[in-house]
Design goal:
Shape: globular
Number of strands: 16
Number of domains: 2
CATH class of the largest domain: Alpha Beta
Structural class: alpha+beta
Largest sheet: 8 strands, mixed
Strand content: 25-35%
CATH architecture of the largest domain: Alpha-Beta Complex
Strand order of the largest sheet: 3-1-2-4-8-7-6-5
Number of helices: 6
């Protein structure tokens, strides 16, 4: 059995007990983020291969999307998905995974658990992972939170046509560095996934929600709506009774520091002229 260490956003995650087939699958997805195993990990995940599929959620006959079952307990989080189960210990943060997969289905199970572990690691470090779209012009970072159907992938497609750098159309993180919020790319994405690669943090310039419209428009909303929208976008921890109060407090602090606005946009590139004007680059002089 082998081990691999994946590093991003300042943390290292070591997966121990992988079969040769599982190692190849993880390498195929996270090659650019692999670290030397001699480095000390921040989180360890022990993987146990159980050949007998009995006792696991059955594999469907074809490709499928499904919700991973998550149960929050006082000292751990229990997880179950197609062909795998896992326990995530809260303190110290580590996980144990049991799976009957040793083929391409393993990668889906692996990434489903990895997202949860990374979410809790980031939260422990003071960061927030959000269902969101994010892009940058390499000077400013823009994050658009929202659940499925909000327009995240559509906006990323439009931003990509404008040669903006897409970070992810599914999960991104906001952390604090030197007292200033910064945007960190996650190696988890939807249509704009591709091969994850190391990304520097970017200043969080714009924090926005999305709304479909006929023309680009920025509007304000109440603090209560802003907090509600962002909390709803924070997976796993927003249904965790142990963490929900702290999550709400952190989100409230975030919207007090970075005003939350709603972007209405049509399926064209006009939104960028609006954002570029309303959120000037550092050092730029803008007439209003």
């Amino acid at each position: 059995m082998s081990a691999l260490t994946v590093g991003f956003a300042g943390s290292r995650y070591r997966f121990v007990g992988l079969s040769p087939e599982q190692v190849d699958l993880v390498r195929s997805r996270f090659q650019a983020l692999l670290c030397r195993d001699e480095t000390r990990p921040d989180v360890q995940v022990d993987v146990h291969h159980v050949p007998d599929p009995a006792g696991f959620m059955r594999r469907p006959p074809g490709p499928t999307e499904y919700r991973v079952a998550v149960v929050h307990e006082a000292d751990r989080i229990s997880v179950a998905g197609i062909g795998f189960t896992a326990n995530v210990d809260r303190t110290p943060l580590r996980a144990q995974m049991r799976t009957c997969h040793n083929d391409e289905w393993f990668l889906g199970a692996f990434e489903n658990l990895f997202r949860i572990v990374a979410c809790y690691r980031l939260f422990a470090e003071g960061a927030l992972m959000m269902h969101s779209a994010a892009f940058t012009d390499c000077a400013r970072g823009f994050l658009f939170c929202g659940r499925s159907g909000a327009g995240k992938t559509t906006l990323c497609s439009l931003a990509d046509e404008l040669d903006l750098r897409i970070l992810s159309d599914e999960l991104n993180a906001v952390a604090s560095s030197g007292g200033s919020p910064e945007l960190r790319a996650m190696p988890f994405a939807g249509d704009f996934g591709g091969m994850p690669k190391p990304q520097p943090p970017y200043p969080l310039t714009g924090l926005l929600g999305l709304r479909h419209g006929t023309a680009p428009l920025l509007s304000r909303c109440s603090k209560a709506e802003a907090v509600s929208r962002i909390v709803a976008s924070c997976p796993y921890v927003n249904t965790d009774p142990v963490l929900i109060d702290e999550l709400t407090s952190r989100v409230t602090e975030l919207v007090e520091r970075v005003p939350f606005r709603i972007l209405s946009f049509a399926k064209d590139g006009r939104f960028w002229s609006l954002l570029d004007h309303e959120y000037p680059s550092p050092g730029a002089t803008v007439s209003r």
